[in-house]
């Protein structure tokens, strides 16, 4: 984890894939960029060490939005952080959407192209209205405070929401997709464990190539998802 590029990554002991979504430039005609130190994203932060919790507090976080389902919470209960509110905003309240379970629902998710990801991300969008609304209302305040958004891996449910946020403020598709692809770097340390568990899943039948695709975060997956977003909803604002 110590070798992760900073920015955007922040080293939090015990937490993977923790990074700031700020700093991305808007179109060339604009001199603005996405505000830093306002929205952070990560994998499950509930294994943060004592030192990691201290770092989280030092970042000025006021609220953590947990997008996980009830079955996922039962496996890894939230850790209290003094002065930081925790808001449960599940995308799928009762369905376990951890990486190991996605394979059962979306066998095509492990195919070599982006189609499986687009299918899965369309399912997230169709279910995430109440969940994402909670975060959007926080950020729509006149003076929003720093927040963390996470799911289990910080890749899919979190990744779709972050893509929406960046698209809403005008970040070009290529930059949105590049930000999404940083998850490959952020999860590099834990990918072998994800792959090992997934290969034990009968739904994947030992398909190592498919599993490696499934745990990846290729920019093409997000570019195809953004195209689906335009076709189905008229874009991020729609």
From TrEMBL:
Coiled coil: none annotated. Residues 148-166 form the Tyrosine specific protein phosphatases domain. It holds the Pfam family Y_phosphatase3. Gene3D superfamilies: Protein tyrosine phosphatase superfamily. Transmembrane segments: none annotated. InterPro entries: Prot-tyrosine_phosphatase-like, Tyr/Ser_Pase_IphP-type, Tyr_Pase_AS, Tyr_Pase_dom. It comes from the Eukaryota. PROSITE patterns: TYR_PHOSPHATASE_1 (PS00383), TYR_PHOSPHATASE_2 (PS50056). This is Tyrosine specific protein phosphatases domain-containing protein.
């Amino acid at each position: 984890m110590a070798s992760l590029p900073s920015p955007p990554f922040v080293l939090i002991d015990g937490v993977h894939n923790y990074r700031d979504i700020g700093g991305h430039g808007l179109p060339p005609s604009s001199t603005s960029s996405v505000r830093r130190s306002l929205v952070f994203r990560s994998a499950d932060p509930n294994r943060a060490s004592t030192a990691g919790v201290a770092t989280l507090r030092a970042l000025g976080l006021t609220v953590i939005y947990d997008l996980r389902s009830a079955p996922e919470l039962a496996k890894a209960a939230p850790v209290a952080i003094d002065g930081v509110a925790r808001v449960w905003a599940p995308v799928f309240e009762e369905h376990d959407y951890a990486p190991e379970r996605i394979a059962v629902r979306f066998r095509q998710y492990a195919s070599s192209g982006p189609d499986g990801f687009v299918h899965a991300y369309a399912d997230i969008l169709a279910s995430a209205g109440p969940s994402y609304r909670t975060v959007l209302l926080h950020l729509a305040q006149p003076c929003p405070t720093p927040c963390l958004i996470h799911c289990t891996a910080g890749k899919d449910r979190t990744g779709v929401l972050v893509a929406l946020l960046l698209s809403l403020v005008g970040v070009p598709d290529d930059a949105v997709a590049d930000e999404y692809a940083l998850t490959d770097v952020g999860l590099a340390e834990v990918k072998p464990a994800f792959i090992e568990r997934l290969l034990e899943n009968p739904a994947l039948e030992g398909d190592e190539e498919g599993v490696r695709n499934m745990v990846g975060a290729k920019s093409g997956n997000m570019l195809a998802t953004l195209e689906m977003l335009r076709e189905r909803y008229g874009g991020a604002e729609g």
